[in-house]
């Protein structure tokens, strides 16, 4: 994820006081933006152990129908997406995905898992798994709220 030290800046019609806002940005451009932010964060903190993770639920034709994804960085695991189709809910799939991520986070040296959800996206599911609410954004989206949650991880003690 390294960046060249000097990037040539090309002035285009998209730069200036009125930048062009795209409703369908190029995935490569989004990836480049994410890389630039990561590199800035590494330079600012000295922490360069960021890694992605994902696990997918697939149908009989191997198409992704759900799953979990996110990243670990700086002893924190962040779950960015978790989705289980309605027909598979209440059967342990969500719990299994979160527990697998928790085990991987511990293996990667994380001491906490953080996620954001909404009041209509089953925050009680996460509370049941040991997450606690640490923040709320009211009216996001309008009439609802975004909820930030955390779970502190413990490692088994090794007797010596």
Give your account of this protein's structure.
The structure is a single chain. This protein has 160 residues and is α+β, with helices and mostly antiparallel strands. The chain has a domain of 104 residues: Aminopeptidase (3-Layer(aba) Sandwich). The protein is built from three helices and six strands; from the N terminus they run αβββαβαββ. A six-stranded mixed beta sheet has the order 1-2-3-4-6-5. A hairpin with a 2-residue loop joins strand 2 and strand 3. It is globular. The mean pLDDT is 91.
Q: Mind summarizing the main beta sheet? A: 6 strands, mixed
Give the oligomeric state of the chains in this entry, treating copies of one chain as homo and distinct chains as hetero. Answer: single chain
Task: Give the C-alpha Rg.
Answer: 19 Å
Number of DSSP-assigned strands: 6
CATH H-level superfamily of the domain at 49-152: Gcn5-related N-acetyltransferase (GNAT)
Overall geometric form:
globular
**Share in helix:** 25-40%
Q: Beta-sheet strand percentage?
A: 25-35%
* Overall pLDDT: 91
CATH class of the domain at 49-152: Alpha Beta
Query: Topology as H/E string?
Result: HEEEHEHEE
Provide the descriptors you would attach to this structure in a database record.
6-stranded mixed beta sheet, 25% helix, Aminopeptidase, 160 residues, alpha+beta
